[in-house]
Amino acid sequence: MNPTADAIDALLPQTQCRQCGYGGCRPYAEAVAAGTATINRCPPGGTELIAELSALLGKPALPLDNALGEPGPPATAVIDEELCIGCTLCIAACPVDAIVGARRLMHTVISAECTGCALCLPPCPVDCIVLRPTGAARDRSRQRQEAVILREKHLARMRRLSARQAQRRRTVLPGDTSPALLRKRKTLDRALARARARLAGRRAGP
Predict the structure, then answer these.
(1) Regarding the domain delimited by 73-137+172-206, which CATH topology (the fold level of the hierarchy) does it fall under?
(2) Which single residue of 18, 55, 84, 135 has CA 20 to 30 Å from 3?
(3) Residue ranges of domains in the chain
(4) CA-CA distance, 16 to 153, in Å (whole number)?
């Protein structure tokens, strides 16, 4: 472990949003520690985080790189239950397991655990997820407290996914075209078609 990266990671908000251009908070912390990334690339942390990193590393404070995003108020993802087709792609994208649901059934977001990272929006095939402000004020002290819990949730998720991937490598052959897999794909295709038809009807209006 890199002590400097550990100290930097301890200050990051652990939203795992990737706005910094790295795969998560830890990769960004390691890049900053290595001197390959600047300290102003975390919109969720904002100017407060930049000041903290500046003090920690003895580097000049820099303006936030606004090209990466703005340090807006807390927000949470919300799923339109009528349009959700239960594809589970949003569940797979959530870095802190804040979305629950089963395949082909409606999913929902645990708002108290959502980081507002927006990573669940792009993979949704029917655009049924939006980000909404929680109404809470931006609070760096609270953000730091929540980061401790979010880091553990993210690490637990990564460990689970790693174990699952190892199991799949042992049991699934490349290019699997089994009848069960083909049925699943056909079911998903039909669900997508129905949801897109409903969405098109909504947009067309009366």
Answers:
(1) Alpha-Beta Plaits (3.30.70)
(2) 18
(3) 3-68, 73-137+172-206
(4) 11
Task: Give the position of tokens 């652990």.
Answer: 14
- Residues 107 and 85: their CA atoms lie apart, in Å, by 8
Helix (H) or strand (E) holding 109: strand 108-109
- Tell me how far apart the alpha carbons of residues 177 and 183 are, in angstroms, rounded to a whole number: 10
pTM of the model: 0.79
> What kind of fold does domain 3-68 have according to CATH?
3-methyladenine DNA Glycosylase II; Chain A, domain 3 (1.10.15)
C-alpha to C-alpha distance for 65 and 40, rounded to whole angstroms: 6
Residue carrying structure tokens 């797979």: 92
Q: What is the pLDDT of residues 14-46, one digit of tens each?
A: 999 999 999 999 999 999 999 999 999 999 999
With left for phi above 0 and alpha for psi between -120 and 50, is residue 24 left, alpha or beta?
Answer: left
Length of the chain measured in residues: 206
Which run of H or of E encompasses 132?
strand 129-133
